[in-house]
Every structure is written in structure tokens, then in C-alpha cells.
Amino acid sequence: MKQKTFIFDLDGVIVDTAKYHFLAWQNLATQLGIHFTNEDNEQLKGVSRVRSLEIILGLGNQTASDEKKEKWLVQKNEEYLAYIEKMDESEILPDVKRVLQFLKDNNQKIVLGSASKNAKVILDKVHLTSYFDALVDGNAVSKAKPDPEVFLVGAKLTASTPENCIVFEDAFAGIQAANAANMLSIGIGDKAVLHEANYCFNDFTAISNEFLKELIEK
Predict the structure, then answer these.
(1) What are residue 138's phi and psi, to 5 degrees?
(2) Which tens digits make up the pLDDT trace of 119-154?
């Protein structure tokens, strides 16, 4: 069997930490007198923490000094960390573990490619770290998706060519990044949102071992 590199985003693909980001951002927005809804939160998917705060301030037509922004970013992250501190294996999304195990059993390279600066903490909490050959998170890259940096670094760490990499993403910016990196992109979520992906599935329960085998042999 051929060897490929499978790159997984974290939030919304492996675990649903997006809900904790939303709660922490919403609490901050409320504190700033800004109405922040689930729909508004869609704009934050796959973008950096700094850019997320800028979007929220924009929703309230507010500006702030760098000092204030930094204080709010720390506050938001501390609240988010308090949520993820309580995470366990029950937070892993359906069939993710089966897919990881199948890839591991078939000697495939597995990489995490996430904007999250807390990725290692989360993987440790849900006991998935051992599946990964390399972790590329927000601490390892300077450019946010849709820039392909995070995925290209992942390919480099596993000595893979981009053409041999397959990316699982739930964010439009992430799909764009995978495509820009010249990798095969698989959307996890709403096809209407992830329409630029090469393939799209609601979740991993819809991805069979046979399909994974086909991807490996391509």
C-alpha cells in the first residue's frame, strides 16, 4: 500500500472545541456591549485569535488600543482554557478514532494542522496525541489560513510532497489553504459552505474505510 500524509484540522474536525471558543468570545463581546450570535461566529472559523477579536470589534463598530486588545485576548484564552481543562475522550467527534486507527494500521502519516495554540493540550486531554507523527499548531506558524503555511509545514515535517497530502477541514478558509497548498481537500460539514473542497462529508461516520483505502492508492 502507498504511503500518504493525512492532515487533520482540530476544532470541528477531531473535537468540537468550537463551542467553547464561541462561549468565551460571546462572553467577551457581551462585556464590550456587542451582540454576538452563532451566525457571527461563523466568520471566526479557521482564523487567528487576533483577527477574531478584530472581527468582533468591527461588529460593534469599536476600536481599542493594542494594550486593551492584548488584555482581552488573554482573558478570552483563559476562559477557553478553563473549558478545555474539563475535556475528556467523550469530546472526540464520531468515528474520528476509527479513521485515525485505520490510517495508523495501514502505515499512513498523520499530522495535525491547526491554528489553535492549545492543540497539544487538547490532544493530550482526549488521549489522541500518540496517533500523530507531527503537530503543527498556532505556535509553529505565523500565517493564518487561507494561507497554506500550516499544511506545507506539516508536509515538510513528514518529508511528504503536497500532492501526497490529504487535508480534513471544517472551515472554508481551511479548504482554501489546502487547495492553495496543492493538496487534496476534504470538507467535514456543510457542503454549501465547503463547496471548494474536492470531497465533502457531514462527518467521519460517512467516510468508509474503503474510501480511505482509495485515497491512499490514488
Answers:
(1) -65, -15
(2) 999 999 999 999 999 999 989 898 989 999 999 999
Measured in Å, how far apart are the chain's first and last C-alpha atoms?
10
**Residue matched to cell numbers 474505510:** 209
The torsion region of residue 199 among left (phi > 0), alpha (psi -120 to 50) and beta comes to beta
CA–CA gap between residue 109 and residue 168 (Å, rounded): 14
**What radius of gyration do the chain's Cα atoms show?**
17
Q: Which CATH architecture best describes the domain 5-15+89-217?
A: 3-Layer(aba) Sandwich (3.40)
CA distance 39 to 71: 25
Instruction: Give the global pTM.
Output: 0.86
CA angle in degrees (0–180, nearest 5) for 108-123-187:
60
Q: What SS3 class is residue 8?
A: strand
Q: What residues act catalytically?
A: 9, 11
* Residues carrying CATH 3.40.50.1000, the chain: 5-15+89-217
pLDDT, tens only, 25-38: 999 999 999 999 99
Contact 154/7 with Cβ under 8 angstroms? yes
Nearest to 24 by CA among 66, 85, 65: 85
